[in-house]
Amino acid sequence: MSDVSMVVNGRKVSGSVEDRTLLVHYLRENLGLTGTHVGCDTSQCGACVVHMDGKAIKSCSILAAQASGSEITTIEGLAPGAELHPMQAAFKEHHGLQCGFCTPGMIMTAVDMVRRHPEGLDEKTVRNDLEGNICRCTGYHNIVQAILAASKAMAGKNETQAA
């Protein structure tokens, strides 16, 4: 057993977990944060993307014990209160949601993408940076359009992380 302590969505949490507990399972099963999805268990699909210390990671590829001492942001913590984060709003407006299973990971990846490209995004960059996030429903056109729109809305604002 390992003792873990971290800040998740602005709230300090701690507990004991089996050494083999993945961060995604800790978030879902121990903290009840089910917006982070388990899609493939092999780090291929990106449904489990969260931010650890401000950077996107696949939470199925890291142990909860390895995240101890870190600050984690999940889709539930991206926006304050009932107000949507600009990326969430853009996914809604541009119909980038589709079935919704991949959406939380796509949004978390996209917010990190904007952080990593403060100069702005173009379609080629978005499509390239989405590699590792799989949508099984359909093409990525609406997802790409949502990310481009949110990138413009977030330009010049400190909107890449929850307040």
Architecture blueprint of SSEs:
Elements: E1 2-8, E2 11-17, H1 23-30, E3 49-52, E4 55-58, H2 64-67, E5 71-73, H3 86-93, H4 103-116, H5 123-129, H6 141-154
Parallel strand pairs: 1-5
Antiparallel strand pairs: 1-2, 3-4, 3-5
Helix pairs in contact: 3-6, 4-6
Mean pLDDT: 92
User: Roughly how many Å apart are the termini?
Assistant: 33 Å
Q: What's the order of the H and E elements?
A: EEHEEHEHHHH
Our Rg estimate from Cα atoms comes to 15 Å
Strand order of the largest sheet: 2-1-5-3-4
CATH superfamily of the largest domain: Beta-grasp domain
Work out the count of structural domains: 2
Shape from CA axes?
globular
Helix content: 25-40%
Structural class comes to: alpha+beta
Profile the largest sheet: 5 strands, mixed
User: Under the CATH scheme, which architecture of the largest domain would be assigned?
Assistant: Roll
Q: DSSP helix count?
A: 6
Number of strands: 5
The CATH topology of the largest domain is what?
A: Ubiquitin-like (UB roll)
**Beta fraction:** 15-25%
CATH class of the largest domain: Alpha Beta
Low-confidence runs (pLDDT<50, min 5 residues)?
A: none
